[in-house]
Amino acid sequence: MRQVICWSIALLFAACTVDGPPIRPPSDYARPSAPGPADQLGGDDITPGDVGGDDVTPGDAGGDGTTPGDAGGDGMTPGDHDVGPGCNNNWPIPTSGVCAVSAGDRQRILLRGDILLESEILPRAELLVVNGTIACVDCSCGDHPQAAGATVLTCPRGVISAGLINAHDHIGFTETHPVPDTGERYEHRHDWRKGLNDGTYVPVPANSHGRGNSWGELRQVLAGTTSLFGSGGAAGLLRNLDQASNLEGLSHGAAIYRTFPLADSNGTMAPVGCARYGIDDPTTAAAAVAYVPHVGEGIGIEARNELLCISGHAPGGQDLVFGTAAFIHGVGFRAADIAMVAAESRGLVWSPRTNTVLYGATAEAPVYDRLGARVALGTDWTATGSVNMLRELACAESWNAAWGGYFSDADLVAMATAWAADQLGFGDRLGRLQTGKVADLVVWNAAENPGFRAVLDAGVDDVALVLRGGVPLVGEPA
């Protein structure tokens, strides 16, 4: 697996390309460092709670409590994220492994360790799972009426997070080896899909084995993923969020996954107008918990025109930009387009590695955030994307560094957990460690990388346990 992960010199130092992504100056994206007038991307930098943050008002976005413009912060350490006061627990370090286990009722599991909430860390805390649902998240869950007799996992050097959600994949192509990066970049996805506009055709065969989907899902589970939005799936491992019949026991409507919402799989492109396209029915799309189409995959005018057609802003278009929609890729969107998407839909599903490899650019994720939209993260596929979500997070961090560290560590993890659940219409059940949510969670080895870094710096070997609905899928032998 590690040979597959290191598939090209293009991924050296966890970057997304050999030379690094083409970027604007980081100052274009940095969160404001001092009070100033309102700008077009939101945030007047003086109003508490406004986008951007005034860095002095408790609860305002941004600020480590000491350094203006710093993202997050515990009020003491510049660059650190918000850390709660911690709990008065002091557990002994296990002699081996990440967690010490006291066997009990398998339907009731009490986990002890540092708990990652959406925007803060609850150190030395407890989380109780009862029949696959989170029943308690607190300093002590021992007094909960169903805690007695539970299996206890004590992980003093472990970090507990929500299970990762891969918000964009093509699981039916998961047997494909990574395509060598020749350095060629394309204007539109049809240029490499069909060899149009003098682009070199990139062959990406579908799975040839009957268990290809299962193999791909297992690779994701090993890296801490519990749910997949992947245009298909297999029974027994990940929750397949686009298949109501394959949600692994979760009673919930499925999201609509659309690779070709303009009926353009044959390579149709149009720089203006929509007469060449067949556009999805807005009524059917709006009835789902989420409608998530591929739009704007490329940097040319044809990629941008796709959004104009799917938003009804071009002749012959249909308006599919509504409150339950989110858009995969969006590389070709302009600032005004992003403003519309942010105002009228959930936002972006971001796949930076495949965007960088194919187009030399990626979606302007900080602009979505500044305008109030969420950003979710997905691997796309093995051909030009990431082997798992940990590798995709590494690529997202490379872009984030180019953007001046706009997103905090907690933000990046949220892209693969809470924000991904929201984008796909599953935020009511998945993505957060909260009472009443489904117990899809991961225990990470945090001996060397504490807090949110336990996820962001993790490799497959750092995954100590993966639970899906309280059921262990993979983990250390104990």
Q: Residue ranges: pLDDT <50 for 5 or more in a row?
A: 1-14, 18-27, 31-81
Overall radius of gyration: 22 Å
Main β-sheet, in a few words?
8 strands, mixed
Assess the beta-strand content as a share of residues: 15-25%
Helix content: 10-25%
Morphology call:
elongated
Q: Average pLDDT, to the nearest integer? A: 86
The secondary-structure element order is: HEEEEEEHHEEEHEHEHEHHEHHHEHEE
Strand element count: 16
Termini separation: 23 Å
- The number of helical elements comes to 12
Structural class comes to alpha/beta
Keywords:
478 residues; eight-stranded mixed sheet; alpha/beta; five-stranded parallel sheet
At a glance:
The chain has 478 residues and is an alpha/beta fold. It has helices at residues 2-5, 189-194, 212-222, 282-286, 301-310, 335-344, 352-359, 365-370, 389-402, 409-415, 418-423, 453-456, and strands spanning 100-102, 105-116, 121-130, 133-138, 150-162, 164-166, 225-228, 239-240, 256-258, 291-295, 326-329, 347-350, 374-377, 441-445, 463-468, 471-475. The radius of gyration is 22 Å and the shape is elongated.
In words, what does this structure look like?
The chain has 478 residues and is of the alpha/beta class. Helix content is 19%, strand content 19%. The chain is built from 12 helices and 16 strands. Strands 1, 2, 3, 4, 5, 14, 15 and 16 form an 8-stranded mixed β-sheet that branches. A 5-stranded parallel β-sheet has the order 9-10-11-12-13.
